[in-house]
Fold this sequence. Notes:
seven-stranded parallel β-sheet, NAD(P)-bd_dom_sf, Rossmann fold, 307 residues, oxidoreductase, binds 3-phosphoglyceric acid, NAD binding, alpha/beta, elongated
Amino acid sequence: xxxxxxxxxxxxxxxxxxxxxxxxxxxxxxxxxxxxxxxxxxxxxxxxxxxxxxxxxxxxxxxxxxxxxxxxxxxxxxxxxxxxxxxxxxxxxxxxxxxxxxxxxxxxxxxxxxxxxxxxxxxxxxxxxxxxxxxxxxxxxxxxxxxxxxxxxxxxxxxxxxxxxxxxxxxxxxxxxxxxxxxxxxxxxxxxxxxxxxxxxxxxxxxxxxxxxxxxxxxxxxxxxxxxxxxxxxxxxxxxxxxxxxxxxxxxxxxxxxxxxxxxxxxxxxxxxxxxxxxxxxxxxxxxxxxxxxxxxxxxxxxxxxx
Length: 307
Ligand code: 3PG
């Protein structure tokens, strides 16, 4: 009997786990759950006899992949798959997938929520500002970026975007201005919302040069990955510009310095919170379970990311 292991340091909502289990068992497979594990060795031993693995931001590194002797498929229930060693998976003939779009509304709502929180001075009782009429630049117009645009337009923000991989018409039809370079995006917008993946091209790419282009009253919103930020550049802009603010779903490595020196100009979630809603957990969890069943039963490899 095939075994499907759900391994999550940060657990899914119980309703999501229940539904994943139901799908797995209805397909005639065995369901196994490893939640809140504290050491990678627990994942390494649990994966030993699993045929399929569902994870969130959990690390499916080479060691995990090699330990999964029966492993045929890994599904990252979420968007970013920078936590899977794709090369190792491909070498072992393991299919890696994500579940694009399933948690994106949750992430987008958090991005706007953090913008309001920062615009209102962290709810400290002092007068803040409104989002209405402010400029917002969306850096990468994928599933999350699109939801951010929709919600921001409801706030009456002036929304523009830069994404070289999406046709201009697909952006324009949402009432969003298309910009032709990343420099223009940062140069024109008081708020920037980041939605780029973390990969070799994007790591450390949000640097001093770009950030220093932002107009007065700049707020950078990061619900993507901390790795895309060049932290030396981030500290430099904090030091140079009193107007610069940074809100991020997970703290940067230099959080201690920022906390010590720039009180009131930042907010970091204690844990990655973007996809942490019951709805997102259910959507992504069900999608992951169905993708596994469809892969085993029909050979369906839609959403494979290591082709
Ligand atoms: C994603 O890439 O889907 C988000 O960052 C959510 O990650 P999480 O499932 O670990 O909360």
